[in-house]
Amino acid sequence: MARPLIVRIESGEREGKEGRSVAEYVFKPHEKPTMPGSPANPDHPARRRFFYFLIGCLIGVTGGLGNALVTVNLNFAQGTLGLNSNESAWLTAAYFMTNVTANLLLVKYRQQFGLQPFIRYTLGAYAATTLLHLFVHDFWTSVAVRAMSGIAASGLSTLTLLYLMQAMPPAKRLAGVMMGISIPQLASPLARVFSPRLLEWGDWHNLYWFEMGLALASLVAVMMVPLPPSEREEVFEPLDFLTFGLLAPGLWLMIAVLSEGRIEWWTDQPWMGWALAASIALIAAALIVEHRRANPLINTRWLATREVLRLMAVAASVRILLSEQAFGSVGLLTVLGMINDQMVVLNIIIVLASIAGLATAVLTFRPNNVARPITIAVVLIVIGSFMDADATNLTRPSSFYLSQAIIGFASLLFLAQAMVIGIARTLLAGGRNFVSFVVLFSISQSMGGLIGNALLGTFQVIREKFHSHALVQHIVMTDPLVAARLRAGGGAVAGVVGDPALRSAEGAAILAQQVAREANILAYNDVFLLVGVLAILVALWGYAIRWSIRRRGEQSPIILLQQAMQKTQAQEGQ
Hints:
Layout: E1 5-14, E2 20-27, H1 46-71, H2 74-81, H3 85-113, H4 115-133, H5 139-166, H6 173-182, H7 187-200, H8 205-224, H9 238-264, H10 270-291, H11 300-303, H12 306-321, H13 323-335, H14 344-363, H15 372-388, H16 401-429, H17 434-472, H18 480-492, H19 500-552, H20 557-573
Antiparallel strand pairs: 1-2
Helix pairs in contact: 1-5, 1-7, 1-8, 2-3, 3-5, 3-9, 3-17, 4-5, 4-8, 5-6, 6-16, 7-14, 9-10, 9-17, 12-16, 12-17, 12-19, 13-17, 13-19, 14-16, 15-16, 15-19, 16-20, 17-19, 18-19
C-alpha cells in the first residue's frame, strides 16, 4: 500500500513561545494535491461543494470586474481625471502589463509559501488597491493603482479555477476547469449592465465602492470556507528573477506599443519603434536564458513542441477574432451616439448567451473529440460577423441582439475547450510545466485581445480615411442635394445664430460631421467583413489540423490523461 500523505498546515494562531499551532491532515492516495501549491482533492459533501461553487463564481466575477469597470467607462474616467485619449489608454495598458506577467512568480510563490497565505494576501491586496482608487485624482497615481490591481487580479483568476475545481466531483474536475477560466470573461458585459445605474447614483467612485464590496465579500467567503491544504516545496531559484527581469519589461514594452499604436499612430512616434525593438531583444534574451537552464521557469523545449505551439496559435487567433465584440459592435454603436445606458439589454443578452455557451461546452464535452467545439465556435464567429456587416446610420443595439448572442455563445464555447486541452497536455508532460502553460496561455489570451483591438482599430482608421475621401469626392456645391443639406444644417441653428455667413459655416460643419459618421460606419462594416474572412481561414486551418491528427492516428490528450491517471491509481492500489 502507498504511504498516506500527511500535510502539515500552520493555523496562524500564536501559542506563546511554542510558535504556531500545527494541524495534520491525512489524505488517501487519490486525494493528494496534483502538485505543490495546489489544494488536496478530498471527497467533499454536496453542501460544501455548493459553497465552493458559489465562492468560485464570486471570485471570478470580482477579479474580472477589476479591469472591466475601467475599460467600459474609460471615457467617463478620462473626463473626470482630465486625461487625453493617449493618457487614458495607459490605464488599461498598466493593468495588462502586470496582469500578464504576475503569474511568472505568483505560481511559484504559491508552491513555496503555501496556498492559504497566497489567498489572504491576494484578496487583501485586491481590496486595498480598490480602496486606493477612491483617493486617486491624478494621472500617474491612477496608472500605479491600475498596475497594482493587475497583479491582484492575476491571483484571483487562479483562485477561481481552484474553487470551481473543488466544487466538482472527481469525475467532473475538467468541468470545473472550464467554468473557472470562463466565468471571468463575463465581466465586460456585466460591467456594461451595472455601470449606468452605479454612475446614476453618484460619480465614478461608486464603481470602486461596488468593486471593493465584492472584494471584501470574497475575502470573508474564503475565510469561512477555505480550500483544502496544500504541499509546499522550495521552488524559487536565483535565475527565476533574472528571467522575470528580462521577460516582464519586454512584454510591458510590447503591451505599451499595442495599446498606444492606433491612438498616437504607429509611424508618428519614434519611441514606439525603439520600444518594440527593445521588447523583442528582452524577450529573446529571456528565452535564451530559460533554454539553457536545467530547471527553467518556462520550459521552452516543451513550449516549442508542435502540439503546444498549435494550441496556442489557435487560441490566440480565435481571441483576436473575438475582438469583433469588444471593439467592433461597441465601437460602431459609440459612433452612432449610443452609450452604455442604451446597451444594457444587449449586454444582458450577451451574458445569457455566453452562459449558454459555457453550459454547452460542459454538457457536450467529449474527450475523444475536443477540437470540434473550437471549430464550431469559429464558424459561429463567421456567421455573427457577416450578420453585422450591413450596418447603417439607423442601426441600433437591437440590431445586434442575435449576432452578438451568437458571438458571445462562441466565445465561452471556445475558451472552455482550449483551456481543457492545454491543461491535459500540461499534466501529460508533467506538473513541472504548469508554470509554463499558465504563463503562455495568459499571454496568448491577453496579447491576443490587445493585438485584435490594435489590428481591427488600425484597419478601421485606414478604411475610414478611404471612405471619407471617396464620399467627399461627390460633395460639390452645385449638387442640389448638397445645397439642400447645407441649408438644412444652417436652418437647424437659425434660432441661435443670426449671422447668415455663420449659419452657412455651421451647415457645412454639420455636413462634415455627417460625412465622417457615414465613413466610420462603412469602415466598421469593413471590419466585420475582415473578421468574417479571417474566421473562415481559421476554420479551414482547424479542419486541416483535425484531418492531420486523424491521419496520424493521434489520440485526444484528454483520453491519454485519463489513461495515465487510471494507470497511476492502479499502481497506488497495489
